[in-house]
What we know:
It contains 30 helices and 16 strands. It has 746 residues and is α+β, with helices and mostly antiparallel strands. It is elongated and about 125 Å long.
Amino acid sequence: MSKAEAGPGSRVDLDRSDRLWTLSAGGVCLLPLLLQLPGTLAVGVGVVGLATPLLARSGHVSILVRLLLALALLATVMLFYRFSFGRDTGCALLATMLALKPVELRHRRDARSLLGFALFAPFATFLLDQGPISLALGLISLAVALMAMSKLSESESEFASDDAATGREAPWQRLRNVGRMALTGLPLALVVFWLFPRLVSPLWGVPDRAIGRPGLSNEMSPGDWIDLIADESPALRATFFGPQPEASEMYWRGPVLWDFDGRRWRGLRWSGPQAERGAATKHSEKRYDYEMELEPTDRRQMVALDVPLAAPGDATLDHDYSLRSALPMAALTRWRLQSAAPERFETELPPWLRERALGLPAGYNPKTLAQAQRWRREADAAHRGDRAAADAAIVNRMLASIRREFVYTLDAEPLGRHTVDEFLFRTKAGFCEHYSSSFVVTMRAAGIPARVVTGYVGGYRNPIGDYWLVRRSDAHAWSEVWLTGRGWVRIDPTAAVAPERIYDTIDDRAPGAFAGFSGFGPVFDVGDWLRRGWNDFVLGFNANRQRRLFSSLGVPDMDPARLAQVFIVGTVLALGGMWWLTTRNERERDPLLRAWRGMEARYRRIGLSRERHEPALRWAQRVAGEATEANSTLLLELTERFARWRYARHENERAERDALIRDLRRHRPRRRARRRSRPPSALEKDACEPSGGVRSEPVQNLRRGMRRAHLPSRSAALRRYLPSSLSPLCGERVAKGRKGRLSRTA
């Protein structure tokens, strides 16, 4: 609907162009938030966002219908998140309400309300993700929303230009204006980011997410990891300083699970001295020094290359060498660690810990217990008096059985009450959770202390940047058994049935591979390298790095007081630059007028400026009459062409304008002009000479001002109290010395 069709309501109702701009801006703002919601919910909200503009266009929607829609969507979101409140629930509600907002879009007031509400969506996205893609989409959303606001303002402005009023202004022109505004505030934003004093911990807490991010936990049950193993998002990135282990040696140790209730494994809650240092361990001489970046998980469980030598930073190293951070890792964290493989790992097992490592619930998995006890009797008979050899025989017998009869698959059947019995004697198919759990239960039933260790295994080496990427799909669970004289020994039963799950990560499961075609690998390498740089440059900029910001310039670590001083100075400079950019004269948009004013400025510098009231042709004629330079005729010709182009129509306007702009830019006054002396006019004589023995008013003002201000010379009084147009002429007549000698003051 055009403005002419809108009739008297054109100042209230939206026209077609304004409506499209508003809906497009709302959709662009909603997009980055939708990408962070669960897939099913994001699709549903997107469908609602597409349907509501059509519903509103069909006619006025009653308040009752809008209320019912809002309640239905609210109930859907709350049921999806099981009535749990947190960041993801709030962001989903925001997206839902924004998708429903176009149903009441009828007036410009509604359009402004929708645009203002839509700006919350890209900002809410940063509560869920701070990656470069979210930032890029957020900046695009902000630009489009500001362009839509500019369109609404121009449409209702009574002083809008013809192009803006008719809606013919190009989108790139609106984008350029928005970009100019953004660049004006960019210095202040950079100062705040780099110099505003950062706290080690947040000033206020943000509620935990209702549905935690995928990651390792202190519990495990067979089948729980199916979503985690299918997740290809990064879990950590590690950069080694010096020797690097092979992919088959990369077991990233996480939570260690001890207690089993028949279905679920849980870790111990260490306290006292056992929560402050690991068990007595002899490490191998080959050690690895590396820096690890852990992606956010909202949990405290950490991982490290098996096994860490010490706890980094404020983390805690438990007795079983599992690491825990002091606070939930809700943001990207960076840790520097050293690890070495253990040669002897806790060779002396305390009685209470041995009892914990042999505990099994009563009434579960009778077949497994019977088989393990039979294996124990046979092993003891074959290795009489040698407990270590008997234990090793049981371990090897279990691994041999897995190699012969079991298969690895992610499509495992659900298990009932006796999970281990059903897996070992019926399904014989599963993934790492099933194998590690069944292996540890069998070992405990045979009298061998055992425990489940969770973490990640393997990794992908990115040749761009030379670092290792470990994804959430690399999540793994293995077993540790305690053998006499050796202590805890790592046993990976999953590797017995599916070694490609562990060792062929690079070839068969390389990132970027799609349907067996790995041509997208280099693209993935570049993308992940850029994401790592973003993490290091932006997300990893914390309080510690801020204190060392100027260390490369020889400035030591800055305390908060000195950093606040630098921040104040930077803020003042940034605000001064913004003030200068916003208050200076706006650059002329017309290139022809810019070229003309540039030529005027060149003549102004030699004393031949054009007066404000003076037309262009009159000025050119005056300059030609007062100047003796050879190119004064060229000035007249250029001025005539300029006036003709401005006030007359031409067949080929663009070509003539471009040629005129080129000639105006090339034209230069050759030398400083000499002014011709001329007698003063009657008005000027009357202003400077007394009439009838009485001083004229300008001269009286001059004398009175000198007496009042005690000015030292008449020239100073002349410049202060005489009009600027008369002072050059009156200066010769009123500024005479006592001896009658002429003293020029102009």
